[in-house]
């Protein structure tokens, strides 16, 4: 099975994401109204913009979850129109909702996830440990977890997969101070290991230093794209 | 592939087991329907005996609607549908796994129902082999068609009402065939039970085939 | 003529259904055409495979 | 078929139409009207009563064409469904929907005229032992399900895909339904292939074929109009989307200029 490795191509030399004129619909509403974007390997891209700007929609398109209406592009070397299953298999997405089965325990959820992603199940305790999920709740159904604990579990599911592209939608939301620091550390680790990170966030104070590039999104389009220096100057 | 199927089926069965809905609500519901049919037919033994196969399979169809409804809601709640997509399991494996889980639940209900018709309706079984095979084959067929339609209505807001509108007409031939096969197995009417079993198998194969092909298309239609 | 009642009901309903459907579909077309600008009504005059 | 008829209308010279008619459909419509009048005259006054059925045979002139058109329509729906899934062609999607709507109407009329005919002939409105009757009923229920899915709302291509799968599901299950009902009661009251028996009077046969032709012409007329309605709906949505896109882009432009202004 194709696990997202580009045959014969150097991963570092190519763009991880390249989108041209991408329009994506949410029902009949244009969530993205024509996005052009290229992201190179190893970048940490901060996406910011007002509510309803299209940040989450952009992340969902990059994850291969949304059919695009027009435009074209590639993510991790797979076509965003015709090869969405391959994209979905390769990325790590943390969405608004946590993508966990409510009636399964933390461990069961992650085991299912690991098995589906073709990852050793032995990685599960390590990932949970990394996210500071205490072992006393490993066997508790997700239904009974607090919002912060769910969030950490969902992040652990991303970590288990060791993706080359991390797509984090408001990763700091609902987390305590310790959890927020943990997210920062995860992003730094992923980036230094050569992975690419896109994160949508309103917490500019916290994420400004993490990011190597800032993307302003409004009206379903990219309206500003620059390095971290501008915001530092401000 | 087989491991993926097992993972999906195991997950669904575990969720179902944990919620105890099958054990504590669906099985009592099925038994209740049997008892109520008894009242409706005025506890008339000959009529009940004649009607037993039909009542049995009518009840199974009602339960199928419930089971498929629950199986679908597992994947529609919160971000679970997204989890299934992102996990990257082959759609065929998801389809087979979910259908197997539904089939197992239905078989559990059918075991109770067979006990029920023996006790309440005084049914006598002539041909156990035909009875068991009919149950297995019909259940597989019903589960396959149900799982496909469950995925089909998953994105529809009024799915609780749309599902039976689609499911029950599709299952009409199963009702006819399984009832006739039971007629033979219970010895209530002399018919060619094994020929009916063949028709059931044909239905199962056709609908499983379409399900396996169409399930991925439906999952992709986010 | 025998069975005249059955014949009249059968034919009456059949003709009425056809007429009703015909009127309804034409009315829908009229209502919708006002909403769609002329340059999008290509299907009237050219091959309309999109 | 629709495309060809539409293509002949170039001479109409009416750039802003407010209806789905064209010279061809108006002509066809007049032919259908004349045909229906002729059919009524033929059926009631020209064709002789049947030896066995008496005057009830006059219902056959609309029952049989309705039944044939039902199956023609649903075959079109199945074909359109397959083509939508294969090519994602809106043309076929709209055709499938149009055929299903007209097919459901003819299916209801088939069942209705069938039971009206059955009462004087078989002495019952409904006969469970009749294969074609019961199969047609199940087909009717399946296709009503198709229309329910069509009207259930949601993401547009998703609705088309769901409906297409229902269309194919109906198509593959109908032979099974037919077989199971046939075995269920292996007797049937239905007229067995009366057309090939050769015992029908010439004028009766002529009226039957004439009814079929008139029905077919109505079907074509209705398909053209219904297709155009579907196409207009499609275009209205495209128009709405263009407007929404424009609004969204001007929102982006406003945000972009204010952002660059702030930094300057």
Largest interface by Cβ-Cβ < 8 Å: C-D, 38 and 55 residues
Quantity of strands of chain C, as a count: 0
Residue fraction in strands of chain A: 25-35%
The main sheet of chain A orders its strands as: 6-7-8-3-9-10
Order of H and E elements of chain C? H
Q: Mean of the pLDDT scores of chain A?
A: 86
Alpha-carbon Rg of chain C, integer: 19 Å
Q: What is the helical fraction of chain A, as a range of percent?
A: 25-40%
CATH architecture of the largest domain in chain A: 3-Layer(aba) Sandwich
**Helix-and-strand structural type of chain A:** alpha/beta
Mean pLDDT of chain C: 80
- The string of secondary-structure elements of chain A, in order, is EEEHEEHEHHHEHEHEEH
CATH top level class name of the largest domain in chain A: Alpha Beta
What does the overall shape of chain C look like?
rod-shaped
How far apart are the first and last residues' alpha carbons of chain A, in Å? 49 Å
Describe it.
The complex is a heterotetramer of chains A (234), B (222), C (50) and D (264). Chain A has 234 residues and is α/β, with parallel strands linked by helices. Chain A folds into 2 domains: 1-91 and 164-234, 3-Layer(aba) Sandwich (Rossmann fold); 99-162, no CATH class. Helix content of chain A is 32%, strand content 28%. In chain A, the strands form 2 sheets. Chain A has a 6-stranded mixed sheet with strand order 6-7-8-3-9-10, sandwiched between helices. In chain A, strands 2-1-4-5 form a 4-stranded antiparallel sheet, covered by helices on one side. Chain B is mainly alpha-helical. Chain B starts with a helix and ends with a helix. Chain C is mostly helical and 50 residues long. Chain C has one helix spanning 4-33. The longest helix of chain C has 30 residues, at 4-33. With 264 residues, chain D is mainly α. Chain D has a domain at 56-192. In chain D, helix 2 (23-46) packs antiparallel against helix 8 (202-263) and helix 5 (131-150) runs antiparallel to helix 6 (156-184). The model of chain D is unreliable at 1-15 (pLDDT under 50). Classes of the chains: A alpha/beta (234), B mainly alpha (222), C mainly alpha (50), D mainly alpha (264). The interface between C and D is large, with 38 and 55 residues.
